[in-house]
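Journal club side-thread
Mid-discussion, someone asked how the predicted structure for our own chain would compare to the paper's figures. Pasting it here so we can look after the session.
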Amino acid sequence: MSWVRALKETARSGLKVERRRLEPLVALRGAAGLAIVVGISLTLFGPSVAASSAFGAFQGAIATYQRSWRPRPVLALASGLSLAISTFLGYLVGTHSPFFLLLLALWTFMAGLAWAVGPTVGVIASSNVAIMLVTVTLPSTVAEAAGHAGMIAVGGIVQAALIVLFPIRRWGAQRDALADALAAVGDYARRLRHDPVAPFDAEPLMTARLAAAVTPREARRRPAELHGARGVAERIRPVLASLADPALGVPEEGEERHRVRELLAAAGTVLDAAARAVRHGEAPVIPPAAQAALATPDTGAILTGPARRAAGRLTTLLADVVETAQGSGTGQGAEPLLRPTLPRLIPGALRTMRAELGRRRSPVFRHAVRVCVVATVGYLLGYVLPFGHGYWAPMAAVMVMRPDFTLTYARAVARFGGTLVGVALATGIVQLTHPDTSLSAAIAVTCAFLAYLLMRTGYAVLSGCVSAYVVFLLGMGGLQWTQTVPDRVFLTLIGGALAMVSYAVYPAWETPRLRTRLADWLAANGRYASAVVLHYADPDRGTGELRQALLDTREARIAWQEALDKATHEPVRHRGLSHLAAEESAHALSQLGRTAMLMEAHLPDRDAVPVPAAAKLAEALREATEQGAKAVRERRVPRWDEVEQALDAWDGEGVPDRVVRRGAGLVLHCLDDLTDALTTPNSPKP
């Protein structure tokens, strides 16, 4: 993609406004917390302290909107306290001293590295640095700086307290994640009726797994209907695929296929009912038609072999889903996924950030360097230019910069467009109302409410609301709009331009890493297929290794898809992997993972007869895919001679289970398809 087209695409993406489900009660709670803090601060301390506390309360509420499975009060507290510390230290070193530049450089570099821990931590750290640039200019003495920092912390505490006192949809994010996973599996069942080899996006299941991780304290308080349903949904998905696939299931036409379609339709209905029940915290209502379809007694007479076993297992698993959604049954006994508490998380986060220091070509390290340099240069430019309020240039840059190209450029355009609209509206309101301190505070709170309410509709909308909020908040302290609006517009443009130039000068393109992502996916698929086949050689083997291999496969696939999406919009040409080769390679690896999943759906019982030849095939699969992954990284053609030899030896020994032998042949076919895809002549990029 050319630079011109890339800029057009990112600009269009940044200015896009989407229709999203609004949460007015959550927005009202955040605005109420802000109003409480501003009202108390105005009454007791005056406009300057009120402005500082308002920034703390505003950012505390913003932090709770980030995608995180941790309790929202914890996010508000962490944001408020970290902003308070940043403000106090920033004032101590002096905003016009070389030491402040050093502190700003250190703070922004650390905020950039924080993206290695996760996007939630990265967003909160970046926002706190940006707001710190404003709050350090408000106090005039050390004692006042301490007071301002204290009130900023109070703003976060108030937001956290309101979340505790007025909860809205307890465990709502976790309910939505689990319901989305159940609904995704239900939709998969319906699609299999018409397309027996339909693909499945495992991201909802991965998200539900992240949402299911809790601390020991949370595990004791979690609603019963959130226990275990995710694990049952995980087990249902391969059963559905094996029941529908003609390779290991029933013929494409005939009485057996008709019965399978009935079962798939009933499964989709039951899963949808369970998803609604979990989302709203109510008992599931299963339509009688679906119950009748699952309870039909002639299934055993119609289906035979693997299909019959899959149908029986599906009925049992669907009953488990309904029991779990009702808050009773097998789900309650499930072992919870434990995650560390926040104090225990800090050492691990620091180790992760320190590890990034040794990865000089990683996107996170390069982002940290870019944001550090841009913030410092932006602050110097703002200081020497004759505008005043020079902190707006680095603040805009820090707020828009992200580790990848698309988000950085899209947010830069959205920030400037939103700022223009926001300050224009703020200026018009000021000209019409001539607000005093109290009215400025009220309008600022209203702008904050709109920011919370419309946050998820687009960054341009959020930028407009935040721009108006800042204008009225600073106007509350006595600054006239003529002192803030022109400076803010021009310096925001400078900050956005610096952010865009920095990525062009010191990029972290995803395009050159596509082969590495593809190789990682191949290696993960190979480990998964090997673990599945090994179970046929040792039926009494535990499933821990198999489960971890499956999770690694999903993570690798999502990493590949994210990298491909980013590379699609980058103005970079990569001659090592064409669009056609990437598409066909991804299809081959998807089919490889799917075949392994079908074989997993028919794993032998613990007392089944072992298949000794499967052990040799499992070893050959693991070694061949590891070597194949190395070949993909080095731009060589992978070969699968070891797998072919293992299959030939297997045929000579006899195969007692046609499912595993047929699946092994399909695995080799998928590997050959990958080789063919990688040897496809490179097609020109559009």
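Post-session note: The chain has 28 helices and two strands.
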